[in-house]
Amino acid sequence: MTEILAQNCCRESEANFVILLATAAGMWWGFLWVPSILKSKGDVMNKALKIAGVGLVIVSATAVMLLIQQRRKGVSLQGLTTPAMAASPTASGLPRLVDLGADKCIPCKKMAPILEEMKEQYKGRLDVVFIDVWKNPNAGAEYGIKLIPTQIFFDAAGKELFRHEGFFSKEDILAKWKEFGVDLSDAASQTPAFERLSPAKTDERPKDTICYMCDGSIAPKSLVTVQTEKGPVRLCSPHCYFIMYSCLTEDKTGFEKKVTVTDWTTGKPVALTEAAFLCGQDETTGRPWIKAFAAKDAALAERATAGGNVLALEALQQKEVSHRCGFCDRACYPQDAAEVIVEGGMHTWGCCSHCALGVAARTGKDIEVREKDRLTKQPIVVKTFEGKVASLEPKTAVAWFGQRQKPDGTWASAGCFHQGFFTNADNLKKWVEQNPCETGRLIPISQALADKMRLSPEQIKKACKIGECVPK
Fold this sequence. Notes:
Elements: H1 2-8, H2 14-39, H3 44-70, E1 96-101, H4 106-121, E2 127-132, H5 138-143, E3 150-154, E4 160-165, H6 170-179, E5 195-196, E6 224-228, E7 231-235, H7 238-247, E8 259-262, E9 269-271, E10 276-281, E11 288-293, H8 296-306, E12 309-311, H9 313-320, E13 338-342, E14 346-350, H10 353-363, E15 367-372, E16 379-385, E17 388-393, E18 398-405, E19 411-413, E20 420-422, H11 425-434, E21 440-443, H12 445-453, H13 457-462
Parallel strand pairs: 1-2
Antiparallel strand pairs: 1-3, 3-4, 5-21, 6-7, 6-8, 8-9, 10-11, 10-12, 13-14, 13-15, 15-16, 16-17, 18-19, 18-20, 18-21
């Protein structure tokens, strides 16, 4: 409890306010209980002891709050903690960034890796100073701060240019310095520019062999067809059908009657509602697979050699839509998705890397995204704070924003199946080379997050939804 309270007391006056509030609450509690004690049955000694107990609770609560205020201590930030310094010119004649915070304040802890990185990256170009105001109590008054963390920007002559209260991302800090004519960008720190706006190769596959959802090739034995007023919509697998089903905004009553699957044994179409399904998992990846059959006996015969479980449609559908994207609510397999941990401990998924970032926009909370490089499967971890990237591992990680040009010449997202994260720009370029039909551009992951955070609640509600099935 002490740790939680200490982490949340980020204003200098806030601790005093909490003490006052606790004392007032104790006095009010005493005001309510003392009369009842006096009216209760029992001898005078027992009543006196009860009243003394009430007083002890009030005094103890006040003492605990005072102790919290006086014992705000933690692990120091090595290499950054500096005694309080006046806003005077630096000996090196460099612009200076001073961050006043504390090592147990939550937003201050989010700032720590940013300050450490900037201190090293811009050595000789920018002085980066951290002052712990709980260990240097006079610094708060010296710099005139009211909230921690506070970042103060000084020019090389020691003149204050700007100050900001609260968490400040690296991108925002660099942008603010640039406003003052201090451009800290260099070839090593800039995200490499890369885009491909025209396919390197024409997709020569017949349109009826391309999946409506994922653009993958349709194998004859796993074809699923949805009949619509505008023609048949063809999908590469039952899983892509359930993804599409989860995205529909139209009335889905009786929708399954429009659907046929393909018998795995004969290759002939079978009504979805009459089929039996054999389901299993890949031994290496754990990713589910589904085979459809016209008869349960055929499914049981296949199970004897392939393994798995035979399921009816209702059980299969419940299983397929049980995992949903935390941003767009689309059905997904965890093996294909990014893991998202939301502030407070809730775990969910992002059906693609960009939708994973969108969970921060939908929930309004800080998140941690655990994704894999689309080329090498190496782990990538993104942590956000107040809608900004607080940390990125590895720091070289970038995003691919898959886009397609519309008939009117404007560009739009190519969809969730065409997005991804990569540990570095080289991996992204290799992946693009291996996928000659992909079009889009490389963007910083911070930009991908910012794009999601700009969405309105109405836009988030409509994300990745399908109003009506239309053949491609």
